[in-house]
Amino acid sequence: MxxxxxxxxxxxxxxxxxxxxxxxxxxxxxxxxxIALGSSDVAVRANRPVAVHEGAYRVRTVNLTxxxxxxxxxxxxxxxxVNAPSDRPACLFIHGSGTGSAxxxxxxxxxxASAGITTLVPEKRLDDYSWIHRDYARFADDYGRALTxxxxxxxxxxxxxxxxxxxEGTWIATLMTDRDEHIGFAILSSAxxxxxxxxxxxxxxAYLQRAGAPAQVSDNVAKLMSMDFAPFDLRYGDxxxxxxxxxxxxxxxxxxxxxxxxxxxxxxAETIIAxxxxxxxxxxxxxxxxxxxxxxxxxxxxxxxxxxxxxxxxTLDDWVNAVAAGTKADGWATARIAGVTPDQRFTAPRxxxxxxxxxLGLLCAMTVAAVLAxxxxxxxxxxxxxxxxxGTRRSGTRRSGIRGSDTxxxxxxxxxxxxxxxxxxxxxxxVVSGTVPTLIVLMLHVYLGFVGWSAVMxxxxxxxxxxxxxxxxxxxxxxxxxxxxxxxxxxxxxxRRGTDAADRGADPHDAGPSGDVPGPxxxxxxxxxxxxxVVVGALLSLAVMAFWGLFGL
Length: 553
Hints:
Elements: H1 2-22, E1 59-67, E2 73-81, E3 88-94, H2 106-114, E4 118-122, H3 136-151, E5 156-166, H4 169-179, E6 186-189, H5 196-211, H6 215-225, E7 252-257, H7 267-278, E8 284-289, H8 312-324, E9 337-339, H9 360-401, H10 407-414, H11 424-456, H12 462-504, H13 524-547
Parallel strand pairs: 3-4, 3-5, 5-6, 6-7, 7-8, 8-9
Antiparallel strand pairs: 1-2, 2-4
Protein name: Alpha/beta hydrolase
GO molecular function: carboxylic ester hydrolase activity
Organism: Bifidobacterium simiarum
């Protein structure tokens, strides 16, 4: 028992240290550099007031077709102000993640058109768009073709034609401004600013905190976000959005919803302001609305039919008309940064180097192997049982057909599995050591899935998640005792395997419950393979548990 205790302690120390080595040297830190607001009013007004506002014109809708660079034809919806003056401003709309219809943005585009601004909403091609692959350069090409079409429309002033982009679309927008210095203005709403990897690290931490996840679970975010996603073609997660921010040399309007925990709502605005300033552009306006990520009046990410935030369309329309009229950085009568006070919880990390395990593919392979090894052990044990049954039957036939011979030894030499079986105690230990770690690993992933679901759905499960995590840690520690017991038992069997045969002058494979030579409990390579698979699976399971922090000190 002392040996089992020592082995358990050694395993605990080893896997606790392994868990620490798997953790990266960075973690998601609380955000402290809060932005200062000049006013709580989201309205924008130039020193020279603009006479045209929302509702000034009737809107005419026209369905168009845009031909992309590779010959594809995509639909687009154009909205024009009826009887508006020529040389008017125009705005191209760029979709965010998961949207792509030409009928999106209908409320915002119609509002702009009623304020004298021609708008165009093209489709976003989703044929090569998935959660594992996104080609932002191709999207920039497609939207660039749509921009060319919009500039060519009668009554549109190409020099006063700009972009409206949301969320992921702001990455595409900055790609376009980097390629085309003649874009008249840029409206960036819910802009991630940082890379997808850095964004997810911050957003996941915020969502997990809101769901009440234990601190050890939240710490896993850094481990995951530091990994190489290349085996799963998730390279878009490393798209360097900040690389293109210096191209924001035109007037810029930055909008965020203060209820949006998925975006760096303060850090992002500060980053855009600083990048534009370094490029000589101080004409950057920032507005915070009581809104969610979609700039809608509500917190739910998946709640349909929510209205736009109060004042949102008025702000957009008035700002576009003001910059189209030539308003410079010093030409605003309203505060540069204004609206509802934001409260960004966490900082999007600047760098995301990995710990000991740097590949998501390796983690997945290790998890699969941890589950697969005991299954292979079960198959091996079944094969041994079938072989033993077959060997016993053949041995019995030989014994009845040959008289006066040492049938026990003859049969055992030819069919060496006849007495080769695990004793009851070892068999139970193998079953427990093969089954329990697998169940814990599976339950761990079920738990992590539930945590993620609770976070996305904004459900506070603090007590339940704390109980579940404590139960998993207790189960993991209990499992470690059984693994230590199995390791000690296998070590003892290795010692007995040679010692018994040498002391008694017997073949170890002849030992069995009905023989006169009590031999070891693990006999033959098949039995050792079964035991080895169980041990390997158990150790891999412990490594997986260590990665997720179940042995954290």
